[in-house]
């Protein structure tokens, strides 16, 4: 987080997932932030369980804070029906700090299934809460230099994932999640994926 913030911006985006349209059962966050911007730019993306009363299946709140008022204009968000993108037109300046916090909220009811949920970032940290209640067939995360954390839930309304692909070039990946529900002769059991 930046010290001495003088300017901030909050933007909200809503996305709906329809069960009838298979092509629309996906969502992506992609950033085009150059690696050289790490001196001035930082932040995180967190995926959480939203509110039953939120207007969209997926609500995305983007909070941008900066120590320079003009630098907020350098953060450009681009929205399409199935994704949110971010670009940063940076200028290297030692005393400048810009921070972005992206909060992705899944509405817990009605429960939705995503064919693909993808987060790709240069160096933003990625975090997943475990009690999202949704089912994701393919969960893809990549951060070149950030930290990826999964906070799994074994008991209440878990996020069910069938295929997980998490990569990081120089950051760390940790936590646990429920990759799938498996049925055995003795009934249903949770299969946990754990990282040390």
Question: What's a concise summary of this model?
Answer:
The chain has 196 residues and is mainly beta.
Can you put this structure into words, describing what you see?
- By secondary structure, the chain is mostly beta strands.
- It has no helices and 14 strands.
- It has one domain (7-16, 25-195).
- Helices cover 0% and strands 57% of the residues.
| Major sheet summary line | 8 strands, mixed
How far is it from the N-terminal to the C-terminal residue, by CA? 27 Å
Beta-strand percentage range: over 45%
Residue share in helix: under 10%
Q: How many structural domains can be distinguished in the coordinates? A: 1
Shape: globular
Work out the helix count. Answer: 0
Uncertain segments: 180-196
Total strands: the figure is 14
User: For the largest beta sheet, what order do the strands appear in spatially?
Assistant: 1-4-7-3-9-11-13-14
The secondary-structure element order is: EEEEEEEEEEEEEE
Computed structural class: mainly beta
Nearest-integer average pLDDT? 84
Gyration radius, rounded? 18 Å
Short descriptors:
196 residues; mainly beta; eight-stranded mixed β-sheet; 14 strands; disordered C terminus
Give the helices and strands, then pairings.
Layout: E1 7-15, E2 26-32, E3 41-49, E4 58-66, E5 75-79, E6 83-88, E7 98-106, E8 113-121, E9 125-129, E10 135-143, E11 148-151, E12 160-168, E13 173-184, E14 187-195
């Amino acid at each position: 987080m930046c010290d001495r913030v003088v300017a901030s911006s909050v933007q909200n985006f809503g996305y709906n997932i329809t069960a009838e349209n298979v092509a629309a059962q996906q969502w992506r966050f992609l950033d085009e932030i150059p690696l050289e911007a790490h001196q001035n730019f930082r932040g995180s993306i967190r995926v959480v369980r939203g509110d039953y009363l939120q207007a969209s299946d997926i609500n995305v709140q983007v909070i941008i804070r900066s120590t320079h008022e003009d630098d907020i204009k350098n953060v450009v968000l681009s929205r399409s029906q199935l994704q949110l993108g971010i670009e940063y037109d940076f200028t290297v300046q030692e005393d400048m700090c810009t921070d972005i916090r992206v909060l992705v909220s899944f509405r817990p009811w009605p429960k939705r299934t995503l064919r693909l949920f993808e987060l790709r970032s240069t160096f933003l940290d990625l975090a997943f809460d475990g009690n999202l209640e949704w089912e994701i067939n393919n969960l893809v995360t990549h951060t070149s230099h950030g930290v990826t954390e999964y906070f799994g839930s074994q008991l209440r309304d878990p996020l069910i994932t069938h295929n997980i692909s998490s990569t990081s070039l120089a950051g760390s990946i940790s936590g646990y999640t429920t990759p799938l529900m498996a049925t055995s002769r003795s009934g249903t059991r949770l299969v946990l994926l754990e990282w040390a």
